[in-house]
Amino acid sequence: MKLMNFAGPPSAGKTAVIKNIIRKLYPQVKVAYLKIDVVMAFEKEELQRDFADLPIQIVYAGDLCPDHASVMVMKDAIQWAMREGSELLIVESAGLCLRCSPYLNQGLGVIVLSMLGGMNSPLKMGPMVSLADIAVVTKVDLISQAEREVFREKIREVSRSIRIYEVNALQGTGTSRLMTELDGMTDIDVDTLKLKGVPPLGVCTICIGKKDIGWDNHFGVIRKLEGADYLYRGE
């Protein structure tokens, strides 16, 4: 089975891009779809209207960071997709934490970026962009050619090696070029799957719901206003 992992900020067009990919593969290629969201998702109903027998799993992270939840359920999800006889598993993350990146050391990591998110938006996303194999840029029909060129350069400031595809996700224009990436994909090896990057620090009393403000009221990984260093306080 092959794996594609999609990330990106909300409303960038991740689901629209994924629908176009499935449309070009279905039903010749058996695809499974996993969505990691926080409290509500509507992709299942949306996809089932077009692809009635598509295996779909929706996972709600709840109080967990969505990318934390993604790491927790990924192995189970891969085993589920394999039991379904899938040849390709497409994972879509909620895209709410711009520091996190859910990409693995195998398969394709895809960041979906909207041209309407601002010229500097790629610079604000850290590993979500820098660790991706592919950048899919959407809503390109709504801005000028000059702005498109600037946006591409901003992406390349974060990652020189990333491959960039511009698409109109609603109409599917440009998706055919993206589909060529699937030809070179190899099957994943579940036993050697790992995160591609180092996850962010996130072990502290805030994570378990303590509401007090100020570093002196907390334990674990902390940070003060002065200085950029993270400190560890307490046990």
Query: Count of helices?
Result: 6
The name of the CATH topology of the largest domain is: Rossmann fold
Largest sheet: 7 strands, parallel
N-to-C span: 42 Å
CATH class of the largest domain: Alpha Beta
Net shape: globular
Q: Which value, in Å, is the CA radius of gyration?
A: 19 Å
Number of strand elements: 9
Secondary-structure arrangement, i.e. CATH architecture of the largest domain = 3-Layer(aba) Sandwich
Mean pLDDT score: 88
Strands in their spatial order, largest beta sheet:
3-2-4-1-5-6-7
Number of domains: 2
Beta-strand proportion: 15-25%
Structural category: alpha/beta
What pattern of helices and strands is seen along the backbone?
EHEHEHEEHEHEHEE
The helical percent reads 25-40%
In CATH, the homologous superfamily of the largest domain goes by the name P-loop containing nucleotide triphosphate hydrolases
Low-confidence stretches: none
